[in-house]
Write a structure and sequence with these properties.
- The chain is an alpha+beta fold and about 260 residues long.
- About 55% of the residues lie in helices and about 10% in strands.
- α2 (about 20-70) packs across α3 (about 80-95).
- The protein is flat.
- The termini are far apart.
């Protein structure tokens, strides 16, 4: 007889259906291996694709020189990648000086006057300048606000200010990236009193988004759903309602 009242006897079918401990150990170790290898493999795959793209971008520039020296098929992997890095560095050096910045501004204005090109070029340029700006001009603050309903918090990036027609503080344009692909998303205009600032860095927020919420930063803290000021206002409204109803109830008693 079982002396433990909380214990339950297992039927033979249940005992037979339960996998042995060795199966649990194998599954646990396999999942641990996947959790280690999969991120490394994905990271290496993405880096290799970026290297392959940069290498192929400048590879056509090598063929004329190779043909000039009598071997048009001569090529070593990595030469195009090095040339691409040199080109990017050279372009950046030119457009960051005074003369180059002025010439590029005129060329950019000419490009943005083209009817079809400007609809594609302008948004892409603004997004890339925002994300690669060394001064942190864009997406420098991570904020929280309740969306799409009260009690549901959304993580966003503070992008800019949008003024009102009166003297109120301006609203903020918030970029809401989608998970796990933060390169797409949507934009909302939110009033400043509805925004809660956080101590998160942009990198930590992007890591959380890319991981689909699995990698939660330690610095992330959700504010209370109802603030103290809202509780005080609610309490005051209750007292005012009671004070307003008391004479009416007294008058009704006197009338009866």
């Amino acid at each position: 007889m079982n002396s433990d009242p909380n214990a339950t006897d297992k039927t033979p079918n249940e005992a037979q259906a339960e996998p042995p401990p060795s199966v649990f150990r194998v599954r646990t170790r396999l999942m641990a291996g996947v959790s280690i290898i999969a991120p490394l493999w994905i990271t290496g795959f993405v880096l290799w694709k970026l290297f392959d793209w940069a290498d192929g971008f400048s590879r056509p520039l090598v063929k004329p020189f190779a043909a000039f020296f009598g071997n048009p098929d001569w090529y070593y992997s990595g030469i195009g990648f090095a040339i691409t890095i040199v080109i990017l560095y050279g372009v950046g050096t030119v457009v960051t000086n005074v003369l180059g910045r002025r010439l590029w501004a005129e060329a950019r204005e000419a490009i943005e006057r083209l009817p079809l090109v400007r609809t594609i070029y302008s948004p892409v340029r603004q997004l890339m300048e925002t994300m690669t700006s060394p001064t942190g001009a864009g997406f420098k603050k991570v904020v929280l606000f309740e969306y799409p309903r009260r009690g549901t918090w959304t993580l966003g990036f503070l992008a800019g200010d949008v003024p009102f027609t009166d003297d109120r503080p301006p609203a903020h344009s918030i970029f809401i990236p989608t998970a796990p692909n933060p390169t797409t998303g949507f934009m909302l205009l939110v009033q400043p009193e509805d925004i809660r600032h956080t101590d998160l860095t942009v990198e930590a927020a992007f890591q959380m988004i890319v991981s689909a919420g699995v990698a939660v930063p330690l610095a992330l803290r959700l504010p209370a759903s109802v603030s103290l000021s809202e509780q005080v206002v609610s309490a005051d409204s209750i007292h005012l309602s009671q004070d307003h109803d008391a004479p009416m109830s007294g008058d009704a008693s006197a009338a009866s």
